[in-house]
TrEMBL record:
Cellular component per GO, a single term: cytoplasm
HAMAP family documented for this protein: FdhD
Keywords: Cytoplasm, Molybdenum cofactor biosynthesis
Protein's UniProt name: Sulfur carrier protein FdhD
Single biological process term from Gene Ontology: Mo-molybdopterin cofactor biosynthetic process
Annotated catalytic residues: 119
Principal localisation: cytoplasm
Name of the gene: fdhD
UniProt GO MF annotations: sulfur carrier activity; sulfurtransferase activity
Lineage: Bacteria, Pseudomonadati, Planctomycetota, Planctomycetia, Gemmatales
Length: 276
């Protein structure tokens, strides 16, 4: 796959804020907010979807997104991802053109053309269209509880945009001994994971049967669905899982951990991969 080297927009931008306290006068100061901007994805010159995202690692985002949607089977299905130069001022830097090697399913009516940063399945038109397709994990990966408990601090230390803004999610990929391989940030939790999966696809590392995924917030349906597609056997979250996330983890053999802290965790599915 050819990816043209392009400069991304900043992930955050400066603002002036008025800080008010319960006692005393307010004060004005400089602050920063995470950027949320549309990314139009074109395939064969035709717009197929718009993703609301934080700029940065856009090519990885599109690769991971197309993989999760079943449009591509691996990175070799993509010939190139480039930024068109004939865009308007509004579109500048916010459009990616994708050329595919093979003609696979390209949004055959399942999905409309807009996905907000807060929703990984917005635009789906029926319950049948959100059915997860994949095979249960047969990974023999195990990880110690003490190693898992150390991961949130390592992920937090690798989140520069969150440090600056407090306004983005993160997904991190770890080895079984707790080494951080990659982390991606975005205003959308599903976008952060798509970027991470896109990174792995470009390296030829999918399926990720020997890796642990940690997400910075809660874990819901779409994150487990993307983990199933990428072959990730252990999914951990700093926050809570949803009922559907637990159901999918049980069905597809994924070890699901929630409320991960240095002091402990809750294991919701397939605890056999976690050793004392």
């Amino acid at each position: 796959m050819q990816v043209r080297d392009t400069s991304d927009h900043e992930a955050y931008q400066p603002v002036r804020v008025l800080t008010l306290r319960h006692e005393g006068a307010g004060s004005e100061r400089a602050d920063a907010v995470a950027v949320e901007a549309p990314l139009e994805v074109r395939i064969g010159g035709k717009p197929v979807t718009v993703l609301m995202r934080t700029p940065g690692h856009d090519e990885e985002l599109v690769t991971g997104f197309l993989f999760g949607e079943g449009v591509i089977a691996d990175a070799d299905d993509i010939i190139s991802i480039t930024r068109p130069t004939d865009t308007s001022d509004t579109e500048h830097g916010n459009v990616l053109e994708v050329r595919l090697m093979v003609s696979r399913r390209v949004f055959d009516g399942d999905r409309l053309f807009y996905s907000s940063s807060s929703c990984g399945i917005c635009g789906k038109k029926s319950i049948a269209s959100i059915e997860v397709r994949g095979t249960p994990s047969c990974s023999n990966l195990t990880v110690s509880a003490s190693t898992l408990s150390a991961l949130p601090e390592r992920l937090r230390a690798a989140q520069p945009t969150f440090t600056r803004t407090g306004g983005v999610h993160a997904s991190g990929l770890f080895t079984a001994d707790g080494a951080l391989l990659a982390v991606r940030e975005d205003v959308g939790r599903h976008n952060a994971l798509d970027k991470l999966v896109g990174w792995a696809l470009e390296r030829g590392d999918v399926p990720l049967a020997e890796r642990v995924l940690l997400v910075s917030g809660r874990v819901s349906y779409e994150l487990v669905q993307k983990a199933v597609a990428a072959g990730i056997p252990i999914v951990a979250a700093v926050g809570a899982p949803s009922s559907y996330a637990v159901e999918l983890a049980e069905r597809f053999g994924i070890t699901l951990v929630g409320f991960l802290r240095a002091s402990g965790m809750n294991v919701y599915a397939h605890p056999d991969r976690i050793t004392a």
